[in-house]
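RETRY 2/3 - previous attempt timed out on the joint model. Re-submitting the same 695-residue input unchanged.
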Amino acid sequence: MSLQLHNVRLPLAEFALEMDAMFDRPIAGIFGPSGAGKTSLLDLIAGLRRPIAGTVRLDEKVIFDAAVRLNLPPRLRRIGYVPQDLALFPHLRVRANLMYGYRSPLMENELFTLGHVGEVMEIAHLLERNVTTLSGGEQQRVAFARGILSVPCLLLLDEPMSSLDSRLKKRLIPFLLRIRDEFRIPLIYVTHDAGELVALCDEVLVLERGRLIERGSPADVLA
Amino acid sequence: MKTRILTLLLSVLIATSISAAELTVHAAASLSDAMNEIGRAYEKESGDKLRFNFGASSMLARQIEEGAPADLFFSADEAKMDALEKKDLLLPGTRRSLLSNFLVIVVPADARATPKSAADLARPEFKKLALAEPQTVPAGIYAREYLQKLTLWDAVKDKVVPTENVRAALAAVESGNVEAGIVYKTDSMISKKVKIAVEIPPAEGPKISYPIAVLRSSKQPDRAKRFAEYLAGPVARPVFEKFGFSFAK
Amino acid sequence: MTAEAWQIVFFTIEVAALSTILILPLGVAVAWLIARRDWHGKAIVETVVMLPLFVPPVATGLVLLMVFGRHGLLGSVLQRGLGVEIVFTWRAVVLACAVMSFPLLVRTAQTAFQGVSARFEDIARTLGASEWRVFATISLPLATRGIVAGAVLAFARAMGEFGATVVVAGMIPRKTMTISLSIYQNIQLGHDAVALPLLFVSIGIVFITVLCGQIISMRKRPR
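RETRY 2/3 succeeded.
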């Protein structure tokens, strides 16, 4: 998969987000101080916010073009999103949350089924539970699973583990790697935690005040 | 020096309060146009200011009973005045019956269906009949008593749309939302949007009488009496006649 | 309480309930549009919706009389086309109650929708939901408590409606006589004693309704 942002510009409160970059690695990390525009970048990619200039291409398809006023709505982009607070629907049980965005894959596929995803994310036993009664780690995995089950071309994660302690983080990292390996969904992963960068990302883009100031492997960037 | 200024101020205050009094007159709704005209003339002549409160006599009487400040009450029927007299709210010796009126059946000016007599009101083409509230408001009571006398009340009572006062009944006919209404002749004369279908002959119709009295609670009974005299006098009489009122025997 | 008085009580409850049911769909739709969308003329629509709260009720009644009377804009169409009369019938009572309680429903429902985190709606969109599905499966269920509270308020307001009703429906015994109108008439007649039981019954009904509304609002919902 390749995601290409070309001369994209999105005005924010204190500065403008300006991006010209391509994402084509399995797990790309977005790193930067809070307020740098990381969440706005993900919102933009998902179609939740609309830039005032530029183009966005997903694989060969143009999903945004300011010049011709083309803006594909989120539901047609097939880009999954796990936001910072997870946004698990509180009025639906785990099963309903998971199946909310479920789209049958185009081909017969045993991978993207509730049973298999539930197994891989180890939440099969939680299906009838109320999401608000789950532990932090369980909610996390349900959020990942919900994203997977919408069979997206790309999955965006916004500091998904920021509210968890380091022990729990260590336990959840393998699940993210499973998304990459088992389901082959590319990820764009926003975080300000260096440990997560090193453990997960193939490359890191550093964002500051809306601009890309550095790009490279986790080791290079953190040095 | 100070006491002189004070006395001057005080006398000016008293003088102004003596020379320009304000009289509050509660009068039946059907009297509104005539009273406004007579009132303007009286204000010029006497220097008093008149404040009119027009409404259904039943509502006005109730307000007086509850202590609403007023100097004069000009009612559309004797019953409301009797009620106040029983409660000793009238200034003795000031009550007199002044005017009389007639009832008419009116229809909207552009109406196609017109009753030729009160009995026609029972026919199906007359679906709604506007009356002032037939239990309490004089105009409604007069109308009901008349229809009862003709044994028509049972036939028409389900068609009745009761209104707050007789002018509201007139307005309902004007709007075309009812097919007919029973109001005073004086009301029908001021409206171009209704036409008289039937005039209820005075011999057949109820005895309509408009009494006036000064209220015991009046703070300026002499001025109030003066205005009541004026209303019975030669200047006011032609104005009442112009509006269609007749005079009590 | 005489049989006649009970008839008045039941009639009032019926029209109040009917008017509330009638305004629910439009009220919820308008509330959602105001809460979640911007469009040309939105401020004007908002103001018009709120008008019955501030304009003297009799003035609102007059407007209704002019529009729905036999010669009115809508009244003439209804009469000639469908043979339906509005003014001085029970329909006018329902109309008056509906118009006077509409702003209360919209205001409360609007707040309820605004209280639903936009994040839930956004995530639902990324999961492929159409705008209608987002409304029906996310916004509406999560705003239900507030909407119910709005309906309760609307019902209570309709139970007590007087000013507009007296102008557009009149006080016709057995046809348009509501509790408020009956109390007023009895006061005019000097029959205060008859008015008192009606007064207590109407307070009682509204008290129970609002209490139920409060209980529904406060029922523990899993967050």
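The radius of gyration of chain A is 17 Å. Closing ticket.
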